[in-house]
UniProtKB/TrEMBL annotation:
InterPro entries xref list: HupE_UreJ
Organism: Rhizobium aouanii
Claim: Protein biosynthesis is one of the keywords in the record: no
Superkingdom of this protein's organism: Bacteria
Alphabetically ordered keywords of this record: Membrane, Signal, Transmembrane, Transmembrane helix
Signal peptide, first to last residue: 1-21
Name listed for the protein in its UniProt record: HupE/UreJ family protein
Transmembrane segments annotated in the record for this chain: 39-58, 65-85, 91-108, 115-132, 144-166, 178-198
Length: 199
């Protein structure tokens, strides 16, 4: 389990390294990167969903601990491309709110989904999150740098979720289950609030 987590973290870090280089070449690209980086961490919906992706990946264990977050980041980039291109994806905001509900519930219930099903669900939600990031790219931002920013921020939120899962697991079986269920349940309730427009 520990080696799988380490492999997953290394894979995410390796994916992020080329992207980080975009932050420095020119002022325009640096601004694009910073705008992109800020987008996922500026909304409660994105933060909750990304952290739950990481916890879900930890709960599944094995190859899922790196495949789930990596798949999310890559498919999210595709969704971002659709958003930048102005290609309509219906129900984006609803899909994002639903992702918080579903991922929170999956974590709370410790659902052991088959890897293919987990990747399918993650991929679907990644399209919505990526489209929102791409559609809201500032006109003066460098596209590649902006994309690198939101991909790196998302990967770091996944790492936070993986770390949270590990820390909770170290708390002991009984306490860990309680804390995980509570965290997932609170995320799901927040997602319902987002769906209802209360948050």
């Amino acid at each position: 389990m520990k080696s799988a987590i380490k492999s997953g973290l290394l894979a995410l870090a390796a994916a992020a390294l080329p992207a980080v280089a975009y932050a420095h070449p020119t002022i325009g690209e640096a601004a694009g990167f910073s705008h992109g980086f800020a987008h996922p961490i500026s909304g409660l919906d994105h933060v909750l969903a990304m952290v739950m992706v990481g916890v879900f990946a930890f709960q599944l264990g094995g190859r899922a601990s790196w495949l789930v977050p990596t798949t999310f980041v890559l498919v999210m980039a595709l969704g971002g491309t659709l958003g930048v291109a102005g290609i309509n994806v219906p129900f984006v905001e609803t899909g994002i709110a639903l992702s918080v509900v579903v991922l929170g519930a999956v974590v709370a219930l410790n659902v052991k989904a088959p890897l293919a099903a987990a990747l399918g669900i993650i991929g679907l939600f990644a399209i919505f999150h990526g489209h929102a990031h791409g559609a809201e790219m500032p006109e003066n931002a460098a596209g590649a740098a902006y994309a690198a920013g939101f991909m790196v921020a998302t990967a770091l939120l996944h790492v936070a979720g993986l770390t949270l899962g590990y820390v909770i697991g170290r708390a002991g079986e009984r306490q860990g289950v309680f804390v995980t269920r509570t965290a997932g349940g609170l995320a799901a309730v927040a997602g319902v609030g987002l769906l209802a427009g209360l948050i």
